[in-house]
Design a protein that fits this description.
The complex is a heterodimer of chains A (about 400) and B (about 240). Chain A has 3 domains: about 200 residues, Rossmann fold; about 80 residues, Translation factors (Elongation Factor Tu (Ef-tu), domain 3, Beta Barrel); about 110 residues, Translation factors (Elongation Factor Tu (Ef-tu), domain 3). Chain A is built from 7 helices and 24 strands. In chain A, strand 2 and strand 3 form a beta hairpin. In chain A, helix 1 packs across helix 3. Chain B has about 240 residues and is of the alpha/beta class. Chain B has a 6-stranded mixed beta sheet, sandwiched between helices. Classes of the chains: A alpha+beta (about 400), B alpha/beta (about 240). At the A-B interface, helix 2 and helix 3 of A face helix 6 and helix 8 of B.
Chain lengths: ~400, ~240
């Protein structure tokens, strides 16, 4: 079943847990009996059913390792499965997105229509912009508290859209909802008869999943080269498909050859290998291949460069200070680099601009940088092929994660 | 008005984990009950209201009989007040029938061999606790609206529910949220002290008493790691300051 990774962000009290609970409830994605138990306790305490407790239950399952993937939870529509990526706080979210621990394909930004746009709403929206997420739904929650009045909705919507425009986010949908009451989550209700747009689930179902890495251009970073009677280049195919007979290019050298055979342990006559597979290839010609090289087809090539524009998230107590040299690691490539320019530094917690044209990046700061590698590297824009658009910087241990935003071709 | 929310088995770590801001109030921490051989409910509340370590006296009555102890008003800090309201406090005026029933159901639960029977008993046990809680809560909120110089409400729900369900995080979170909401509702009505006798620690899916209690106030205090008996003088002093 198709899967779309979704992150829900917004101010802490604006109803995120209730919305998640409601999405699970309305799509019948909860384990049997659990909602009844929650309903019973709510009734016993003389309260209405609170969907936020569903979120607690999901967290509890995760804490106990009941769900298969410990960081993620799922709900389903007829069209596809949705994975909600946990975003406990925006610092963690930013860090996870940058280091590749989680990759959201779409986002819901939740705003309490009664309270309007808050500082945290702005911060979270800013992160979506930073990460280049372009499938965004804004939900105006708690419409029940303002008696479903269109005027107040319009007012908050206007203010929010003005801000979003200033940070280059153009939400695909803005939907008035009441997560508590279930208005316009899965069902269109009369309470909001003046609104003629889709429900949240209908809106989500119009989004596109990122292409499967299988459908993307071939990227085969070489992990090692085994030298027996033949030379076998081994590694994991990050994207695309490689077939026997394919014309290929070895980067960064640019040498070209043809795939003679695909070598896999205990298997014969393997004719192709696709994204996600660890495999080995033998080439027709004697070409020089080494660890860190990237094998591609002859078209739709990545970029070979020594100058990269990147957002980096510093996560080491010891700050970076120019002109320190660091190890740049991207896929299987490892090369020393320096951070040539620190254009601006942002506090990941407040998202306040701290410094421009800086010399230093401290713990938990995000910086727009220009990185210069000591040898050319094979990279991509993060939004094109994430596996080659993401890197880490190391001293003895990892001290920063980064995503490539712009590549300066050699 | 001085308001005391006496919560049996309110666990410090859970208050932190569930981030119950209203239970934490302005100042909060753990109480030191290390002078007692075990964290027993009747011993601790008796010591609280009399300002004296009553362990020996209470234990002398024996496990069963200790639940019948009733301290006279003159022996307690409540005698310092003109119109105190004390609701359901063990060792003073608690509804023994309700507490006897929950202890009886608890025993039945552990004696039951069949899962279905256990489920039925657990449901009855939980429902009884919720019903009793609703009643105490109603009386407590009503008393706070009246003119009294002291209102103390004793809430046993975290203890009773916790013994059978401490491993059910969803349920415990709901209980703590309920208590947190009560604290939110009353914290502007007077000087509020929230106090537990002991906390609770997990024993598999069940819960047993932990070896410290919880305290908090909605005003600045110098209390750091107080003993439960310290609250006797503390509350009387607070009353004098108010006069």
């Amino acid at each position: 079943m198709e899967n779309l990774k979704l992150v829900i962000v917004g101010h802490v009290d604006h109803g995120k847990s209730t919305l998640i609970g409601r999405l699970f409830y309305d799509t019948d994605s909860l384990p049997e009996g659990r909602i009844e138990e929650i309903r019973e306790i709510c009734e016993a305490l003389g309260k209405e059913l609170e969907f936020a407790y569903v979120m607690d239950h999901l967290e509890e399952e995760r804490d106990q390792g009941i769900t298969i993937d410990t960081a993620q939870t799922f709900f389903r529509t007829k069209k596809r499965q949705y994975t909600i990526i946990d975003a406990p706080g925006h610092v963690e979210f930013l860090k996870n997105m940058i280091t590749g621990a989680s990759q959201a394909e779409a986002a819901i930004l939740i705003v309490d229509v009664n309270e309007g746009v808050q500082e945290q709403t702005r911060r979270h929206a800013y992160i979506l912009s930073l990460l280049g997420l372009d499938q965004v739904i804004v939900v105006m929650n708690k419409m029940d508290l303002i008696n479903y009045k269109e005027e107040m909705y319009d007012e908050v919507k206007k203010e929010l859209l003005k801000f979003l425009e200033s940070i280059n986010i153009n939400p695909t949908y803005v939907i008035p909802i009441s997560a508590k009451g279930g208005d316009f989550i899965a069902k269109k209700t009369r309470n909001l008869s003046w609104y003629d747009g889709p429900t949240v689930l209908e809106a989500l179902d119009t989004f596109k999943t990122k292409n499967s890495p299988r459908d993307k251009p071939l990227r085969f970073p070489v992990q090692d080269v085994y030298k027996y009677d033949k030379r076998i280049s081994v590694g994991r195919i990050e994207s695309g498909i490689i077939r026997v007979g394919d014309k290929i290019k070895i980067l960064p050298s640019g040498e070209e050859t043809i795939v003679k055979s695909i070598a896999e342990y205990m298997k014969e006559n393997v004719m192709q290998a696709e994204a996600g597979k660890s495999t080995g290839i033998v080439t027709q010609d004697k070409v020089f291949v080494d660890r860190g090289d990237v094998i591609t087809h002859l078209e739709d090539l990545p970029v070979i460069t020594d100058t990269i524009n990147a957002h980096i998230f510093w996560m080491d107590k010891q700050p970076f200070k120019k002109p320190e040299r660091l190890l740049f690691k991207c896929a299987t490539q490892e090369v020393m680099c320096s951070i040539e320019k620190i254009e601006r530094v942002i506090d990941s917690s407040t998202l306040r601009l701290l410094r421009r044209d800086a010399d230093e990046i401290r713990n938990r700061e995000v910086a727009d940088t220009v990185i210069k590698t000591e040898k050319p590297v094979v990279v991509e824009d993060f939004n094109k092929i994430q596996e080659l658009g993401r890197f880490v910087l190391q001293r003895k241990d990892t001290c920063a994660g980064g995503i490539i935003t712009n590549i300066q071709k050699e | 008005m001085i308001i005391i929310m006496a919560v049996d088995a309110l666990e410090y770590e859970k208050v932190e984990e569930f981030n119950c801001r209203n239970l934490k109030q302005k100042c909060y921490g753990k109480t030191d009950i290390s002078e007692f051989s075990q964290p027993r409910t009747m011993v601790l509340w008796s010591s609280f209201m009399t300002g004296k370590n009553k362990e020996e006296e209470v234990l002398r009555k024996g496990d069963k009989e200790m639940w019948n102890i009733t301290w006279g008003l003159e022996e307690t800090l409540f005698s310092e007040f003109k119109s105190p309201v004390v609701l359901d406090l063990p060792g003073f005026n608690y509804d023994k029938k309700v507490h006897d029933k929950s202890r009886e159901l608890l025993k039945k639960f552990f004696d039951a061999k069949d899962d279905e029977e256990k489920r039925k008993i657990r449901r009855e046990y939980n429902n009884d606790a919720f019903e009793h809680h609703k009643k105490v809560k109603q009386d407590f909120l009503r008393a706070i609206k009246e003119k009294h110089d002291l209102v103390l409400g004793y809430f046993s729900i975290a203890d009773v529910i916790g013994h059978l369900n401490f491993g059910n995080t969803t349920m415990m979170r709901m209980i703590y949220k309920e208590l947190d909401e009560i604290a939110a509702e009353i914290n502007s009505k007077g000087k509020l002290i929230i106090l537990s006798d002991h906390g609770m620690k997990p024993i598999g899916v069940f819960g047993d008493h932990s070896s410290y209690g919880f305290w908090s106030t909605n005003f600045e205090t110098k209390l750091r790691n107080p003993r439960i008996t310290d609250f006797y003088d503390f509350i009387i002093e607070l009353k004098r300051k108010q006069e």
